[in-house]
Amino acid sequence: MRTIFINGSPKKRFCASSYFLFLQRLFVGGEKVNEHLRTKGDYQRILDRLPGADAVVFGLPLYVDGVPSHVLGFLEEMERFCKEKALHLKVYVIANNGFIEGKQNEPLMQMMEHFCQRAGLTWGGGVGIGGGVMLNVTRILFFIQAGLLMLNLLLSGIQTGNFLPTGPLYSFLKNVAWLLYFNLGVLFYIIRMSSAIRKGQPVGKGYTRILIPSFVFILFADLFFIIISLFEGGLFRGWLAKKKPDR
Amino acid sequence: MKLILHDLGEGYAELLERKADRVIAADGKYAPCQGCFGCWTKHPAECFMKDKLQQVCRQLGEADETVVVTKNLYGGYSTAVKNVLDRSIGTSTPFSTYRGRQMHHTLRYGKKDLWKVVVYGDITEAEKATFTYTAERNAINEGYERSQVLFLKDLTELEAAL
User: Fold this and answer.
1) Residues of B in contact with A107 (CB under 8 A)
2) Is A243's CB within 8 Å of B45's CB?
3) Does some domain include residue A112?
4) Predicted confidence (pLDDT) per residue in A80-97, tens digit
5) What CATH code is carried by the domain that includes residue A35?
6) Residues A35 and A130 in one domain
7) A52 shares its domain with A149
8) Separation CA A181–CA A196 (nearest Å)
9) How confident is the model over A121-159, as pLDDT tens digits?
């Protein structure tokens, strides 16, 4: 079984789509090919990977209630390519958006289904995830927690000779359990989709989100943008003003 | 202020300019959004890319009625039109609120009137349903009071639809 994983985020690295595709790859066997679709220059390289593949998994960010435009351009090329080569791949989608409701990905999922119908491909379905950016942050927090644990173990070993103190270990496991909890909905749908990919079956559409209350999410999202805007300077340049065009 | 965003080519320029206060031609001669959020966090309502869409969110922001003329692509906007919309998220602010019982960004330019989409090209019934749903979602997201979607049999119906 050969599966192509296509990250459709224009960001160079550390995007939410790459996080979800990483999780998906953990549970899919066989040959796995990773591709990053950022510009038109990536189109032909990725198309050349398609013959011989059984399934394609797209990891897509939601842009203005739909598929990002650079991915749309690729889909048009992929439709032509698949018809010309008579390819009949199965297509799965992991969509994510910055808002908390995963259901906001529904138009994107429908468009991907219509793409499959136009291109003669099998729509495998997928999952729409709300709070993608914040879930991606849990990945960073995991590495910070792991780093802190290593530091604590090292300091404890140097100071007391005990390299496995229970306090830092317990604290680490407790914090990781919280991070895991936030991701439980995502993990459920991704594991379910992995099973469908292995069996070559459709999985239908499902929607999930980061598992925190909506109003808490909004507070953190606002705080996130205040901090970023403070460092990037936008906060001091008419941050919320009705800016007029120069022409 | 009425704005028309279209992917029709230069042949329709005179008609479109007669029907709107501002016309944006989605000709594809610009870059796609890089997802950096700079139009929220660094240089409000302006893109770091110095092409014809650098201030498109300010232009769209000033419109009270927006008409999008687009060829159908999988039940959504054509690639060139969607590129313009992707570059326009600076019409909102990075702050969040609830609209239509879901989370959305607060509006930089306040409430607006009509988000109208005029669709041409081959389209299935399922794609029509997706387009109508997407336009409703866009209207909520961008703070328009109402949305309307018209499906043209061919472009001879365009003038009446505008």
Assistant:
1) 75-76, 130, 133-134, 137
2) yes
3) yes
4) 999 999 999 999 999 999
5) 3.40.50.360
6) yes
7) no
8) 24
9) 999 999 999 999 999 999 999 999 999 999 999 999 999
- Pairs from B21-27 (Cβ < 8 Å, separation ≥ 24): B22/B59, B22/B62, B22/B63, B24/B56, B24/B59, B24/B60, B24/B84, B26/B70, B26/B78, B26/B80, B26/B81, B26/B83, B26/B84, B27/B80
- Which chain A residues have a beta carbon less than 8 Å from that of B40? 225, 229, 234
Do A35 and A93 fall into the same domain? yes
The ipTM of this complex is 0.97
Q: Do both A47 and A145 map to the same domain? A: no
Q: Please judge whether B41 and A225 are an interchain contact, meaning their C-beta atoms are less than 8 angstroms apart.
A: yes
Range of the domain at B95: 2-161
The answer to whether B116 and B63 are in contact (CB under 8 A) is no
Total domain count for chain B?
1
Cα B115-B121-B122 angle, rounded to 5 deg: 120
Residue A244, in any domain of the structure: no
**pTM listed for this prediction:** 0.96
Q: Which domain holds residue A69?
A: 2-136+184-228
Beta bridge partners of A32: A3
